[in-house]
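[SOLVED] Predicted holo structure with zinc ion

Edit: marking solved, answer below. Original request kept for reference. I posted the sequence and ligand SMILES and asked for the 3D complex as structure tokens.
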Amino acid sequence: MKHKTRDARQKSLSRAQRVVPFIWPLNKSPDTPDEMNTSYGPRIDADRWDFHDGIDLPASVGTPVHAMADGIVHRAGPADKTEPGQGFGSTHIILKVVDPIDGKDDLFLVYLHLDSIAEGVILGAHVHQGDVIGTVGQEDAQYPHLHFEFRKGGPEIR
Ligand SMILES: [Zn+2]
């Protein structure tokens, strides 16, 4: 009994002190996920299998998009796809953040299909977890949603 009480107290203490590495990009919650439409992994697209590199979070155009962690703006701008495998087909932001697993500064958060990019979200700018960095849009998509993905080691499109 004595043991149980102490364990419970320690548990609640560590929860209160816990640093939240990531929050969800739309509702800002550390533990309640945003509504998800397509998850990471294989999917059928136009009757063919392809591999979805991220997750799609449906939301109306103009919904605020938040920085999921403190980081630096690695890239932000309008669609810049010039050839297959190069650039993005929609307004996008990439944040460079510290990987909470290994402490390395090589984790990239990719946000696509944006309607707008917030003022001050420019190359090299620092953002804080929870900051509004842009808004949900529908560019290069069939319905308004935020496409989000993590890229480890480099921001390049594979
Ligand atoms: Zn997507």
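OP edit: The chain has a mean pLDDT of 86. Thanks to everyone who chimed in.
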